[in-house]
Design a protein that fits this description.
alpha+beta, 200 residues, 36% helix, 5 helices, globular, 6 strands
């Protein structure tokens, strides 16, 4: 698991910076997924099939997501999921900002992922999640490594919703870095390795 310097990730030619210039890059990671140019779609499919609350390999991660769901029910944090306007703007979704050459992706109602897709290119996929604490964007990237090889990147962009959102993001930072992200990387590594073996 390798955390990337935000400046290094942001320096790459991502379209999300054009669509969401008012969002801050919170975290950037190098993913345990490598392949050729055509393999990016498989990484996206892997991500869209992940349910963060059902990680069989990490009881701590499962417990945190269940606790977050319970607190959300108690305090109403998720009562207006994906319906509130982006902080400081009238749009409720970044899908409303897309330029003509970036058509919005179809929303799959049965997807286990909490993130609603925004757009995709042959090197980038984005999804968003909005509630009463934050409007967040997750970004998958497929970055050339030389000699025809590519590696996955993960970027997380956020816009906290008021003082509650800023405090909430500070409070969950240690849990993201020491529980959630490590468990996520292990799941991606395991799934990507299984995919590689099934292709043989």
């Amino acid at each position: 698991m390798t955390r990337l310097a935000n400046a290094d990730h942001a320096a790459l030619p991502w379209r999300i910076t054009e669509v969401a210039p008012d969002f801050d890059l919170l975290d950037a990671w190098s993913l345990p997924a490598t392949g050729c140019s055509e393999d990016f779609g498989e990484l996206v499919a892997l991500w869209e099939g992940l349910d963060p609350a059902s990680d069989d390999g990490s009881w701590a991660s499962r417990w945190l997501f269940r606790l977050r769901t319970r607190l959300g029910d108690i305090f109403g944090w998720d009562a207006q999921t994906n319906t509130l306007p982006i902080p400081g703007h009238p749009e409720a979704s970044l899908r409303e900002r897309l330029p003509a050459d970036l058509p919005a992706l179809e929303i799959q109602q049965d997807s286990p992922s909490p993130f609603r897709p925004i757009f995709a290119t042959d090197r980038e996929w984005t999804g968003e999640l909005s509630n009463t604490t934050v409007h967040a964007v997750v970004q998958l990237g497929w970055v050339p490594q030389g000699d025809g090889a590519f590696r996955g990147h993960l970027g997380v962009y956020v816009k906290p919703r008021g003082r509650l959102g800023r405090v909430y993001m500070r409070l969950i930072a240690p849990f993201r870095h020491y529980v959630v992200y490590p468990a996520l990387m292990r799941r991606i590594r395991r799934s990507w390795s299984q995919r590689a073996h099934s292709d043989r």
